[in-house]
Amino acid sequence: MANHATEERPAATSSGFVYVTIGLVGLLLGIGLLLTKPMGPTLAVLVLAVLLALWCLGGLYMLQPNQAAILMLFGSYRGTDRERGLRWANPFYSKSKISVRAHNFNSEKLKVNDSRGNPIEIAATVVWRVDDTARASFDVENYEAYVLTQAESAVRHLALSYAYDNFEEPGAPSHSTEVTLRSGTEEVSAALSRELQQRFDQAGLVVVDAKLTHLAYAPEIAGTMLRRQQAEAVIAARTKIVQGAVGMVELALKGLAERGLLQLDDERRAAMVSNLLVVLCSDHDATPVINAGTLYA
User: What 3-state DSSP class applies to 61?
Assistant: First the structure.
């Protein structure tokens, strides 16, 4: 037989101020009759007044803002009361209070592999709240423990679904639209929220927000990956420097030729290009050698 999810429904409750007034009046009436040493009909009125006071005062309970009460009658769910303040319900109802405020959960740092098999450390923070009190109470054993387990499982699955970073050849135009854990912050957060919501639906919970709070390579490969990133940064910088130097040399040779300041054969042109590239691409200041003779000496 299939299990059907329990749906929250409003309970039949009332404001408690009317009942506390009636209960106190009945209690005072009973005390007054008791002092008169009642007999016969007066005793019956005394008993009724005391029972009325117990009925009215026994059903009172109080709810704070963003708090609900689940009402049960001998194991049968009778509804949920979300009205705040002094409330009254059948005294035979058992009343279990449940918070519907936002809760915050910070996961532990988990060591998992990303989609490329690289070991990484990942953690997330999840903001959630109870939306359906009946499901949270009856469809899962412990909804707070359920959140911890499902959040950890969702974070692990998220890490397996994306690469930590996207490595491309330096200087090459980027044609990749791959979303990674490191670069696709918004997309990854949205994916985490969607998966958590799918898991939380069974327990009647709502994901308010979910974001990664820690993301790093595992210690055993962190050093290697750092050197790789540094090498890629150096290569990318060198590529840009060389591209700029070639443009400057081309501009210099073109300017000399247009003004007729210098006529070079192929061998001398190659030597000048080489010297200019060395000067422009060097990490250190150039130390020129002054030729006191002619260019062709």
Answer: strand
Are the C-beta atoms of 134 and 9 separated by less than 8 Å?
yes
The string of pLDDT tens digits covering residues 255-266 is 766 666 666 666
The tokens of 213 are what? 């709070």
3-state secondary structure of 272: helix
Determine the Cα–Cα distance for residues 14 and 12; give it in Å rounded to an integer.
7
Domain ranges across the chain: 14-99, 103-217, 226-281
Partners of 111 in the beta sheet?
121
- Is-contact 16 60, C-beta < 8 A? yes
DSSP type of residue 188 = H
Report the C-alpha gap between 145 and 6 in whole angstroms: 19
β-bridge mates for residue 260, sequence order: none
Nearest CA to 58 out of 35, 92, 31 is that of 92
Which two structure tokens, joined as six digits, stand for 60? 């009172």
> Do residues 63 and 45 lie in contact, with contact meaning Cβ atoms separated by under 8 Å?
no
Task: Output DSSP code: residue 109.
Answer: P
Q: Which residues contact 38 (CB under 8 A, 6 or more apart)?
A: 45, 46
- Answer positive or negative: Cα dihedral of 252, 254, 260, 262: positive
Q: Which of 90, 63, 94, 58 is nearest to 77 (CA)?
A: 94
Instruction: Calculate helix-pair angle for 219-259, 266-281, nearest 10 degrees.
Output: 140
Q: How far apart are CA 162 and CA 188, in angstroms?
A: 8
Amino acid at 49: A
- Looking at domain 103-217, which of 3.40.50.300, 1.10.10.10, 3.30.479.30, 3.40.190.10 is its CATH number? 3.30.479.30
The SS3 call for residue 284 is: coil
| Per-residue pLDDT tens digits for 203-236 | 999 999 999 998 887 766 555 556 666 566 666 6
pLDDT digits (tens, 9 = 90+) for 97-142: 999 999 998 988 888 888 888 888 889 999 999 999 999 999 999 9
